[in-house]
Amino acid sequence: MNFRSLQIEMAGPIAIVTLSRPERCNAIDESTVEEIGRFFECPPQEARVAVLKGAGRHFCAGLDLEEHARLQRTPVQFMRMCQRWHWAFDQMQFGGLPIIGALQGAVVGGGLELAAACHTRVAETSTFFALPEGQRAIFTGGGATVRVGRIIGPGRMVDMMLAARTYDAERALQLGLCHEVVSSGLSFARAMGIAEAAAKQAPLSNYAMVTAISRINDMSTTDGLFTESLMAGMVQSAPEVAAGLAEFLQKRSRRLEATQQNTAV
Ligand code: 1HE
């Protein structure tokens, strides 16, 4: 795949995806959002996990405001553009590939919408989170009302935007906007550590985690429990389940044999 705004590198089973417009703080223009969607819709077959990071000092400064001003989109054009963001970030959240976000510097506006589509978010102490749309006379359009609203709650999201709050990494950790905070310069290494461990887990278990939990959260209790049982049935039919169980049972029988021999002596 040939991309202009993304760099892709494989490290064994881990796809490292780098937003590569550091001169624009990795702001997202129309072609970047298409590239994100295309990559996560059809990731390389050997990829088991992805790490998403930004080149330069910032993770992502959201909508490309220069392009936004230049294109003078009509309401319908802007609506359609937002729907492309929704499509791209849905490929991330529900595509089945676990994505670990390595965050630093600005995670603002559409940058926070992008981060919210990652399944695990590691931030550095320098990271800050904001939704400055109100200050730019626009509104969120990349899924924040759904994804960020569900993480921090709709009331807090209204307050975050109205009061133009910027959360530092520690506050974001308390609110669930990130899941771990590490020292400056270390988010990528830590994200790789998480990715390596996740890549060792059964692919179908990972698939269930990243595709089923958020969807089930949108369902009624009865639908959610039924869907969970379907998903659990699917996951336990994977070939590696038998191998994993056999290993456990063999160890257990060796343990039992050893105990019986000790008792006999
Ligand atoms: C950009 C963008 C951008 C930086 N579009 N070019 N997003 C925002 O409202 C965030 C706007 N950006 C900022 O508040 C700041 O740039 C940052 C806090 C992200 C970084 O500050 P700083 O001091 O480290 O860098 P800088 O000098 O401000 O920016 C470096 C360059 O990146 C500069 O260009 P230069 O040619 O003057 O060097 C900036 O103009 C450029 N740059 N951010 C275009 N966003 C689907 S709807 C989503 C709605 C939204 O996302 S609204 C939020 C938009």
Reconstruct the topology from this structure.
Elements: E1 6-11, E2 14-19, H1 30-41, E3 49-54, H2 65-71, H3 75-94, E4 99-103, E5 106-108, H4 110-116, E6 120-124, E7 128-130, H5 144-152, H6 154-162, E8 166-168, H7 169-175, E9 180-182, H8 187-200, H9 203-217, H10 221-235, H11 239-264
Parallel strand pairs: 2-3, 3-4, 4-6, 5-7, 6-9
Antiparallel strand pairs: 1-2, 7-8
3-methylmercaptopropionate-CoA (MMPA-CoA) binds at residues 24-25, 27, 57-58, 61-66, 82, 85, 106, 108-110, 132-133, 136, 138, 140-142.
Explain this structure to me?
With 265 residues, this protein is of the alpha/beta class. The protein has two domains: 6-199, Alpha-Beta Complex (2-enoyl-CoA Hydratase, Chain A, domain 1), CATH 3.90.226; 203-264, Lyase 2-enoyl-coa Hydratase, Chain  A, domain 2. It is 53% helix and 15% strand. The strands form two sheets. Strands 1-2-3-4-6-9 form a six-stranded mixed sheet, with helices on both faces. It has a three-stranded mixed sheet with strand order 5-7-8. Helix 5 (144-152) crosses helix 6 (154-162). The radius of gyration is 21 Å and the shape is elongated. The N and C termini lie far apart (65 Å). Bound molecules: 3-methylmercaptopropionate-CoA (MMPA-CoA) (1HE). 3-methylmercaptopropionate-CoA (MMPA-CoA) binds at residues 24-25, 27, 57-58, 61-66, 82, 85, 106, 108-110, 132-133, 136, 138, 140-142.
